[in-house]
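Handout for the seminar on molecular recognition.
Each group receives one record of this type.
Step one: identify the two inputs.
Step two: read the structure output and locate the region that could contact EPU.
Step three: write two sentences on what you found, then compare them with the reference statements printed after the record.
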Amino acid sequence: MRWWNDFAEAMSHDAPLGRLTRFRLGGRARYMFRPRSAEQLSAMVVRAKHEGISVKVLGAGANVLVTDDGFDGVVVRLDQPAFMEVDRDGVTATVGAGVELMPFALKCCTMGYAGLEAMAGIPSSIGGAVKMNAGGRHGEFGQVVREISVLRSDGAVEDWPRERVGFGYRNSCVDTEIVLSVRVDLGEDDPTKLKSRFYEHFAAKNKSQPLKGDSAGCIFKNPEGKSAGALIDQAGLKGTRRGQAVVSTRHANFILAEEGATASDVLELIEVVREGVLQTFNTALELEVEIW
Ligand code: EPU
């Protein structure tokens, strides 16, 4: 009996991953799993662990570079109705991990609920926004989180209060756990004000970042007290290319994948940039994107 027989209707094989990422690059997943319920996800996770097969969740694919070889394990997509629910109770809402961050944030603004205006221009799923503590200069997702529900790799579901989630700069304590849903606490404000703040943040981001190109946003984390983009820029690396991957001339911490690029082009360019900044400023840049 095949290990996935009990949940075969949610499993596919040899699934292309590139088109599910914002880089639009990379190989295929050995398995793709689109669970219909948390129970089904739990059952799969337990079986996969037993079989020694790795499991990863792909949200909006905005912070991931899939290698050309692809991923030899199960990629989970939380895009079925069980993971897309939004349950509002005044200023509090419980949001499924598969919900898209930006439309949700904008809807909150429109309804007069404050706290997510800074999510403008950040492509992410809610689950990804928790794991990475998505954000920027004007705020981070973790600021509104009261509690999250996670599935552990042994199949058990746990509720974590925000203190346990341990939000930091572009990270949290969510590791092998899978975020199922998030409870957020919002404020109240005038919808017109909230919407204009949202669109102001969006416009500012759009002006300084190449949002329309194929990229994974900022490639490196900002080193303490410094801007990775400014360092890469001052090292003279804007416009540097390997194959069809190029360092953006608009914001140096973005690598754009042009027509025909491969994940290997991007990986090579990442090393060139890292080496250039190390040689020029003696600063070792740390990746913000995940490489699969
Ligand atoms: N700068 C340059 N050249 C560049 C890019 C930036 O000189 O090519 C300078 C800017 O002029 C500015 C400073 O560097 O003086 C900081 O730049 P910016 O305001 O663009 O912010 P950042 O630190 O590069 C961070 C986040 C972004 C987020 C913005 C705005 C990180 C790694 N990046 O960028 O997040 O959108 O603030 O809030 O934390 C992401 O996480 O993917 C991302 C894009």
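Reference statements: Residues 136-137, 205, 208, 217-218, 221-222, 227-230, 233, 251-253, 288 surround EPU (CB under 6 Å). Helices lie at 38-51, 101-110, 126-132, 162-165, 191-208, 228-234, 263-281.
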